[in-house]
Amino acid sequence: MKSNYKNTVWGFTRFLGMKQTSPCLKEETKYLTAKCVNQGNHGVGFELHYRGEPQVFSPEQLTAMFLEKLKKIYEKSGIYCKDVVISVPPYFSSVERQAMLDAAKIANINCLKLINETTAIGLCYGLFRHSEFGEKPRNVVFLDLGYSKFTVSVMSFKSTQFQIIAQGWDAQLGARTMDSTVMDKIIDDFKVRYKRDLRDNPKAIVRLSDAVARVRKLLSANVEAPVSVESIMDDHDVYYNIKRKEFEVIIAPILERITSICQAVVAESGLKKEDIHSIEMVGEATRIPIVVEKVKECIGAPTARTMNSADCVARGCAIQCAVFSPLFRVKEYGIVDYNPFPVDIAYNQPKSADGTELKKVRTLFERGCNFPVTKAMSFENRKEALEMQLMYNHTLGALPLGGPTLLGNYKINPGTPLESKFTLSVKISLDHNMITYVSAAETVEDYVEEKKVVVKRDAPTPPPPAPEKKEEKPAKMEDVKEEKKEAKPEDKKEEHKTEEKKAEEKKEGEKMTDVPHSQTAPIPPPPQQEYEIQKIPKKRKTPIDFQYEVHGLSSKDIADFVEVEKKMDHEDLLIISTKERKNALESYIYEMRSKIGNEMRDYSDAATAKKVIEYAQKAEDWLFGEGREQAKDAYEAKIKELESVFVPVKSRYKAYERLSDMNIMLASVCQKTAAIGKELFSKHDHYTREDRDGLNKLITEQIVWSQASIGVLKGCPRTLDPPVKNTEYEDRIHKLEEV
Q1: What stretch of H or E contains 224?
Q2: CA-to-CA distance for 375 and 429, rounded, in angstroms?
């Protein structure tokens, strides 16, 4: 990066959502070595040289490149996942957060959540220590002093959840601020001594910055350390011996800024000194002894370093991502987050009689409220278009990174409701990414629906049941006999005719439909059904499409950036593969030259060896001459040209080496086969003498053939291909293994 400092961008995420008019731009560009340019509505950009041509890249593009590189790193470890949780500083506004989400889309990464760094630290601290917390909450101050930013948070921990009570920050205060203060003193000393200003040489500033950062770390454990840079400018060296006491005096104004922020945050939390359990120190600059002393003196609680400063934020992100994933089971641990920026909403009132239009402003989301949260606003019978603005509260002044305070303009037209009375409902959300926007709008109308329903009457009294018909008992046999005795012949004939007539009537009755006796009676007509009109109150909800202007890249811009990223990624892969083939050609040249004069010397005649060396020399001259910058195909063609003269020698050498190994393998298989045969013949009686003789004959044939092959190979010059092939050995070994 030192040699390519003009083409290197430092801290590009700090420029997300930043405009050219931002008051923080001058402070941030002081640490840049690349050229910062204005992109108009797209904010600031960086002019870099890509493939020899100047090209402007936005902070979103650079962040997407960084995320894409991270994705490739963990994909090399066998982790293939597009779902991530990304940490951002707590002072990022909705503008910077939306820019980070746009960068994730460009990198083809699904961002499940943007989590505040302070929240991630608290989650990492609380989840693994929930068993230590009792009924009384444990109040801990987290002080994060990194390279370029400073944040302080007061959190209250319980066994089931933690809450962020208060937090504060300074987005332009960090270890780099201390380094810059020391560098100013050294630059002034160098200017007095050599009449040269190091600020005119960006490369000298980069080298001096590295030297000062190294000394700052050394002073954390040593009383003094030298800042030494050789030939920094015009053959002049920098040598400045700095003591810890002097360093503490130089950074005294920075220490005052740190203590003032700590006092303000503790005062906002409302906690007393005895209520604070400890101060957790996080960040590389918290190892400076004077920083620890001042913070401990200011807050009045013991300092602790029980967390890994380098990866506690990353661990918190990993825990949050595991909570979202169905593949992991994570203990439920609640988060009561902290919204640092109060959000106001302004909307136009209906025009008065004199035609004036007024705006009403109210605070929607207070400072310190938890999120995500959604609030609804209702407007009764409003037929005029509703124009709304979401903005950060004017009492905030400038945002930490100088971003715009206006979050979005919305125009909502209620349309033409069907009812005369209606309600226009608008929902405003502060989502889990801490981004504020109008999430939905709808009209709600109360109306009455008329429904025809059946009038329920009392059921009519059922008629009394018909009396049961008593069956006649058959006459006794005695009576029948007596009657038969007294009957006359004429009576018998009449009785016979009567019985035949009854039988015919019975057959005709069986042909008719079997209808119960009770239904054969006439059925009275059903009572006429009566209805009534019932009025049911209902609500009709109609979603409304509304117009809006918010910060962030459009869908077209994101699609264009994705195409640019794909093209650049393809070109990068082509460059890497071309470089690999170039290195492969160089290695092949050295291999040819080395082996043809050593282990492969006996396997090629003088003419072939001379030809191989000549080809290698020509390829080397081409490689470091006109072939220095060639396409991938040119290097592959050159490798094939070299293989045409070197592969025959190399194959012959490998064949002879392989024959020696195959001869040893064949002898080993013969011995093993003979031993197994001897054991089987001694244990089992069903083998015949012919089996024994056949096996011994087969083994003897292989041994005789092997000895003969050895003799042939000894008499064959190594400059010729071997008369015995490796496949012959493989066939004989396979034959023995089958037996």
Answers
A1: strand 224-233
A2: 6
**Is the distance from CB of 386 to CB of 414 less than 8 angstroms?**
yes
Beta bridge partners of 549: 409
Which pLDDT score, from 0 to 100, does residue 521 have? 53
Q: Which two tokens stand for residue 484?
A: 């038969």
- The answer on pLDDT for 493 being more than 70 is no
pTM of the shown model: 0.79
d(CA 52, CA 492): 136
Helical (H) or strand (E) element with 646: helix 632-683
List Cβ neighbours of 503 (8 Å cut-off, separation of 6 or more): none
Per-residue pLDDT, 449? 85
Q: Which domains does the chain carry? A: 134-310+327-338 (3.30.420.40), 343-452 (2.60.34.10), 554-739 (1.20.1270.10)
Measured CA to CA, the distance from residue 207 to residue 228 in angstroms comes to: 10
Is 60 exceeded by the pLDDT of residue 11?
yes
**C-beta of residue 706 within 8 angstroms of C-beta of residue 667:** yes
pLDDT digits (tens, 9 = 90+) for 286-343: 999 999 999 999 999 999 999 988 889 999 999 999 999 988 999 999 999 999 999 9
Q: What are 351's two structure tokens?
A: 């025009």
Q: Is 203 helix (H, G, I), strand (E, B) or coil?
A: helix
Confidence check: pLDDT of 548 > 70 = yes
Beta carbons within 8 Å of 477's beta carbon, 6+ residues apart: none
Checking if the pLDDT of 700 tops 80, the result is yes
Angle at 149 between CA 145 and CA 153, to 5 degrees: 60
Matching residue, tokens 């209808």: 515
Which of helix, strand or coil describes residue 455?
coil
DSSP assignment string, 284-313? GGGGSHHHHHHHHHHH-S-EE--S-TTTHH
Token pair of 371 as six digits:
């999120």
CA contacts within 13 A on the Cβ side of 676? 12
Residue type, 348: N
Dihedral of CA 147/151/155/161: which sign?
A: negative
Measured from the Cβ of residue 51, the count of other Cβ atoms closer than 10 Å reads: 8
Residue 145 forms beta bridges with which residues?
150
Question: Would you tell me how many other CB atoms lie within 10 Å of the CB of residue 676?
Answer: 12
DSSP state of 607: H
Return the residue matching tokens 């502060």: 430
Q: What is the DSSP string of 690-717?
A: HHHHHHHHHHHHHHHHHHHHHHHHHHS-
Q: Which of 156, 110, 104 shows the shortest CA–CA distance to 133? A: 156
